[in-house]
């Protein structure tokens, strides 16, 4: 009987959480069928069957986690799907004329188990990360949902069943209205769970929200990045007045031809890829006793999602047009927010661009995304008075901050790359050359 094991679905994955089993014990399985949805550190992925057979056992239930390589289920010929010992014990009943002393202990009437609840005695709300996300999207108050997962944990199926049984749930809750319009990538907060009666005032002011797999892995990786990679930061102010005008003209031309519009960030991504090709010294990774020089320019674009941060990768960005980059980043950003990105679409990056300009942030520093050696933080363009031709004029100034890993990129190397990038952005026709 082949075991179904927890797969490695991303290059940083160490464990996975079972979001929901798509097949039940006893179901016939054909190779290629989707067996289970697994939440990784980056997304929710589908696991397909490699063998034909019958799903005989589920070893790791919905909402539970398991390390990579751990068996989570068993596929066989169907002979192993017999009821577990607990099931006949519940069904058995003592014969009416049999003496009580002769009734086996396991056949005594079983006290009904208390109804599972998502709110245990310590006041913490037990729910899987996927269930929390669905609850926010559908406007479901988790405190009202009966959890059927381990220890009363609320799982995805519970949210769906509750929402279907409660007409108008999504429309009646402000949280659902906030998410349905997709106005922004920020998460919608779950209503705090009150502390149990009798707790201290400090306890009543605090609610514990379990981290999702993505958040836990991101916390560990970025902490390790700050501890192991000696960061230094280079800042440049870029005059993007001509770039903004160029984008306006380019979009008018593309619109007339029926093409997609490009954003300022699309031009920045293309310029970064062009600068990396010209300055390959930054396209490296630290690997202990040696460094790796990457021959391809794969630019990661940071995307905010409710569960954290995802970085879809534009491969060979230096060889793609601005329109191709715009279409790809837009499509991947939408799928990132919907949880539809594949693991291979978020791995293999050699440099990352993180842009907070749309939030009005003029300047910030970003933590390097290992194993990359640099990350570019892009702020908002703001009007400033600058000397030009002997006169004071108003120009649009954008600030870039390059975070560098000093183990493989020194100050001069980072400065030359940033200098090349600034020259491209201030002379936008060179970006397309």
Describe the structure.
The strands form 5 sheets. Strands 9, 12, 15, 16, 17, 18 and 19 form a 7-stranded mixed β-sheet that branches. The chain has a 4-stranded antiparallel β-sheet with strand order 1-8-6-3, with no helix packed on it. The protein has a 4-stranded antiparallel β-sheet with strand order 5-4-2-7, with helices on one face. It is built from 12 helices and 19 strands. The protein starts with a strand and ends with a helix. The longest helix has 16 residues, at 213-228. Helix 2 crosses helix 5. The protein has helices at residues 86-91, 129-138, 156-165, 169-172, 174-180, 201-204, 213-228, 241-256, 264-278, 322-337, 411-426, 429-432, and strands spanning 3-5, 15-21, 28-29, 34-39, 44-48, 53-58, 65-67, 71-76, 231-239, 284-286, 291-293, 299-301, 303-305, 308-310, 313-314, 351-355, 374-378, 382-388, 391-405. Strand 13 (303-305) and strand 14 (308-310) form a beta hairpin. The chain is elongated, with a radius of gyration of 27 Å. The protein is 29% helix and 22% strand. It is α+β, with helices and mostly antiparallel strands and 433 residues long.
Features:
433 residues, alpha+beta, seven-stranded mixed sheet, four-stranded antiparallel sheet, 12 helices
């Amino acid at each position: 009987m082949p075991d179904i094991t927890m797969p490695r679905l991303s290059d940083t994955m160490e464990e996975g959480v079972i979001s929901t089993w798509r097949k039940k014990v006893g179901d016939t399985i054909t190779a290629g069928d989707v067996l289970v949805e697994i939440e990784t550190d980056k997304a929710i992925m589908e696991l397909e069957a490699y063998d034909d057979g019958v799903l005989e056992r589920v070893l790791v239930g919905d909402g539970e986690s398991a390390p990579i390589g751990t068996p989570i289920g068993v596929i066989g010929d169907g002979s192993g799907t017999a009821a577990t010992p607990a099931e006949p014990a519940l069904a058995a009943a003592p014969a009416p004329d049999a003496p009580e002393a002769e009734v086996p202990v396991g056949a005594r009437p079983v006290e009904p188990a208390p109804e599972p609840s998502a709110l245990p005695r310590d006041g913490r709300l037990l729910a899987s990360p996927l269930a929390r996300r669905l609850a926010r999207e559908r406007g479901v108050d988790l405190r009202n949902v009966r959890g059927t997962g381990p220890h009363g944990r609320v799982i995805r199926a519970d949210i769906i069943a509750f929402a279907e049984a409660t007409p108008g749930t999504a429309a009646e809750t402000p949280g659902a209205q906030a998410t349905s319009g997709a106005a922004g990538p920020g998460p919608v907060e779950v209503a705090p769970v009150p502390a149990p009666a009798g707790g201290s005032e400090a306890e009543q002011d605090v609610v514990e929200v379990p981290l999702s797999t993505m958040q836990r892995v991101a916390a560990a990786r970025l902490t390790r990045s700050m501890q192991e990679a000696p960061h230094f930061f280079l800042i440049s102010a870029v005059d993007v007045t001509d770039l903004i005008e160029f984008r306006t003209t380019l979009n008018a031309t593309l619109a007339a031809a029926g093409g997609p519009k490009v954003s300022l960030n699309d031009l920045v991504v293309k310029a970064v890829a062009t600068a990396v090709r010209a300055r390959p010294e930054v396209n490296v990774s630290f690997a202990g006793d040696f460094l790796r020089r990457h021959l391809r320019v794969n630019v990661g674009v940071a995307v905010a999602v409710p569960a954290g941060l995802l970085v879809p990768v534009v491969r060979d960005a230096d060889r793609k047009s601005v329109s191709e980059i715009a279409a790809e980043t837009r499509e991947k950003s939408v799928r990132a927010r919907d949880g539809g990105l594949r693991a291979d679409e978020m791995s293999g990056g050699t440099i990352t661009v993180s842009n907070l300009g749309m939030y009005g942030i003029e300047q910030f520093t970003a933590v390097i995304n290992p194993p990359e050696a640099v990350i570019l933080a892009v702020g908002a363009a703001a009007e400033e008075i600058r000397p030009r031709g002997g006169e004071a004029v108003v120009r649009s100034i954008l600030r870039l901050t390059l975070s560098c890993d000093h183990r493989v990129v020194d100050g001069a190397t980072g400065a030359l790359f940033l200098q090349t990038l600034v020259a491209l952005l201030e002379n936008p026709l060179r970006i397309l050359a």
